[in-house]
Design goal:
single chain, YbaK protein, three-stranded antiparallel beta sheet, 13 strands, globular
Length: 185
């Protein structure tokens, strides 16, 4: 187990590889991001989960830190079409997106992941902290179909090292994504 990381923003929060732990028993201390504002406005029940973020750690690192299956950790990916139109794809942490299948399903010539700086501009979040809730720019959202059948998902809360867990039905209710099957192993 790693040494606890104390959040420099204060609030008495210590983050370990087991997630957020509060020195005073107050688990309500978490970032209030645009994503959290959207979830609260939509009255979505969620649980916050803080962990020490590592560059290039991805969903595997967050799943290990929280002690959950990586399949239930959902990536928020910002893609572009050949015309530079942005779109958001929600995918299992242990799967990849077939860009060709996605392009064919949505009727465009091609899709590809955005460069990090472009994704940041489109989403309003930093790569590694991108949430599908509260995106800066309106864009279509595509949800891998098998995510809907999970009992609970863990998805970015709008900051690096911050996930929220919620029922997939709530994500579907709030975001109204287009359900697709574009996963590869």
């Amino acid at each position: 187990m790693r040494e606890p990381y104390t959040d420099p923003r204060g609030g008495g929060l210590a983050v370990t590889n087991q997630g957020a732990q509060c020195h005073h028993g107050d688990v309500s201390k978490h970032p209030v991001t645009q994503a959290i504002r959207v979830l609260r406005a939509a009255k979505v029940p969620f649980e916050p989960h803080l962990y020490v973020w590592h560059p290039h750690g991805g969903t595997r690192a967050s799943a290990e830190a929280l002690g959950v299956d990586e399949h239930s950790v959902i990536k928020t990916l910002i893609f572009e079409t050949e015309a530079a139109a942005p779109l958001c794809v929600l995918m299992h942490g242990d799967r990849e997106v077939s860009a060709k299948t996605l392009a064919r399903l949505i009727g465009v010539k091609s899709t590809a992941p955005c460069k990090p700086e472009v994704a940041d501009r489109h989403s309003g979040y930093q790569v590694g902290g991108t949430s599908p809730f509260g995106l800066r720019r309106a864009m279509p959202i595509y949800l891998q179909a098998s995510i809907a059948s999970l009992p609970r998902i863990y998805i970015n809360g709008g900051a690096r090292g911050f996930l929220v867990s919620l029922a997939p039905a709530e994500l579907i209710r709030v975001l109204a994504p287009v359900v697709v099957d574009v996963a590869t192993a």
